[in-house]
Amino acid sequence: MQFEVFTLLPEAFFSYIDTSILKRAQERGLIKINIHNIRDYTYDKHHVTDDTPYGGGGGMVMKPEPVFEAVEKVLDINPLQISGKPDSEIPIILLTPQGRVFNQKIAKELSQYPRIALICGRYEGIDERIRENLVTDEISIGDYVLTGGELPALLLIDAVSRLLPNVLGDPTGAEDDSHAMGLLEYPHYTRPPEFRGNKVPDVLLSGDHAKIDKWRREQALERTFRKRPDMLEKAELSKDDLKFLENLKERGKKKD
Questions:
Q1: Where are the beta strands (DSSP E) in 55-159?
Q2: In Å, how far from its chain's centre is CA 105?
Q3: Which of 104, 227, 89, 86 is CA-nearest to residue 156?
Q4: Which residues neighbour 147 within 8 Å (Cβ) at sequence distance 6 or greater?
Q5: Cα 165–228–249 angle (5° rounding)?
Q6: Residues marked as catalytic
Q7: C-alpha distance across the termini of the chain, in Å
Q8: pLDDT at site 58
Q9: How far is CA 106 from CA 101, 176, 180, 233, in A?
């Protein structure tokens, strides 16, 4: 998987992508993260990438020329052939609060592509012609405003990368994560078996994997029921799951 990131702040990325899992994945050739400085695609003396908005108002707007130039050159898109959206098999994603809200399903969708492009906005926003004639997808990481698209781009790179084969040390690690299975993740414990009077649940020390799997599933169901009941509406639930949840509801009624 290859990520092409277009930004005005390339230095914002390296302290994160050069550590831990992402670093090892790059060293092993499982992913490649190319950071492109949009200022390198300007032709004026001062490398200007923004200007005042037409019609007045506060803030500055990212100019279309350097963004188009950067994306077209890196992705080898012929600007003369562009009419509306570019005919590109590579998703060209704008990180913006106006996009579809990122989740695990979208991460899995994007992990199927061999290469994706991420455009990080800055200032008051981008020239609308970038959105209309270059971008093929728009993604938001939530209903709040950040100063730029760099943090959302890092979040997306991390979430997508961990779904790729062999990126995680545990082959099934991504499958058990919160949201990956449609539920919040079950509790984890490690040594020592007792800490300050708090013991690890006996079932985890039993060596009975069937009982452990059942306990983990029920813990995931209960956590989701308590903290994110909205997720249960879309989760794939078995008859045993539904029965367990019904018992939780009954216990709750008795406490009331």
A1: 61-62, 92-101, 115-120, 125-126, 137-140
A2: 10
A3: 104
A4: 122
A5: 125
A6: 97, 124, 162, 177
A7: 52
A8: 86
A9: 9, 17, 11, 18
Q: What is the pTM of this model?
A: 0.87
Structure tokens at 92: 């060209």
d(CA 97, CA 136): 15
Q: How many residues does the chain have?
A: 256
Burial 22-59 (b: 16+ CB within 10 A, else e): beebeeeebbebebbbbbebbeeeeeebbeeeeeeeee
Helix (H, G, I), strand (E, B) or coil at 132: helix
Q: How far apart are CA 62 and CA 98, in angstroms?
A: 16
pLDDT in tens, 89-101: 999 999 999 999 9
Taken in order of first residue, the domains within the chain and their CATH numbers are: 2-161 (3.40.1280.10), 179-255 (1.10.1270.20)
| pLDDT tens digits along 108-138 | 999 999 999 999 999 889 999 999 999 999 9
CB proximity list for 177: less than 8 A, separation 6 or greater: 104, 162, 185
State whether residue 193 is helix, strand or coil.
coil
Q: Would you give the distance in Å from CA 216 to the centre of its chain?
A: 25
What residues does 4 pair with on adjacent strands?
A: 34, 117
Which pLDDT does position 254 carry in this prediction? 77
Cis previous bond, 53, omega within 30:
no
